[in-house]
Each structure stands twice: as C-alpha cells, then as structure tokens.
Amino acid sequence: MSDIATSAGILRAKMDDQGRVISPTPAERQVRADAIRAMLDEIRSIENGPDEDDAEFFRAIDSHRPDRPLFEGKY
C-alpha cells in the first residue's frame, strides 16, 4: 500500500479501476511534499538522549558492573 502517514491523516495514492496508480496533480504533489516535510521536522525535533527512566536503568546496570560498564557515556 502506498500511504504516507501524517499527523493530519493518511495520504493515499489514487488508483484507476484496473488498480494502476494515477499520477498526482502538481497541487497533490505539493500537499504530499508538505506532509513529508512536516513529518521530517517532527522526527528532527525528537531528542536523541535517553529519558530519565532509561538513564536510571543504564546507571543501575553499570553500578553492578564497575569493571566493565555497558552504558558508560550514554546517560
């Protein structure tokens, strides 16, 4: 299925009665491009570091392995 999921919904490809994809109009392409840009902006805004629960978990594991920490530098 050729769907582009967005926070506003799903943009589906249009198909004719034989199941062939109908080329989108320039306006439809622009809508898709804007939706993809919005999704990428949303992905870029995600923080890459672990949240506090993860950091606490990492520290707890490393505290039991002081000679060979697994997560050192990740919290």
Quick summary of this structure?
This protein is α+β, with helices and mostly antiparallel strands. The chain has helices at residues 26-44, 52-63; strands at 3-6, 9-12. Strand 1 (3-6) and strand 2 form a beta hairpin.
Any overview of this molecule?
Helix content is 41%, strand content 11%. With 75 residues, the chain is an alpha+beta fold. A two-stranded antiparallel sheet has the order 1-2.
SSE order and pairing:
Layout: E1 3-6, E2 9-12, H1 26-44, H2 52-63
Antiparallel strand pairs: 1-2
Whole-number total of structural domains: 2
Would you count the extended β strands for me? Answer: 2
Overall geometric form: elongated
Helical proportion?
Answer: 40-55%
The chain-level mean pLDDT equals 83
Major sheet summary line: 2 strands, antiparallel
Order of helices and strands: EEHH
End-to-end distance:
39 Å
Radius of gyration: 22 Å
Poorly predicted residue ranges: none
Q: Which strands sit side by side, in order, in the main sheet?
A: 1-2
Pairing-aware structural class of the strands and helices?
Answer: alpha+beta
Strand percentage lies at: 5-15%
The helix tally amounts to: 2
What tags apply to this protein structure?
single chain, 75 residues, alpha+beta, 2 domains, two-stranded antiparallel sheet, 2 helices
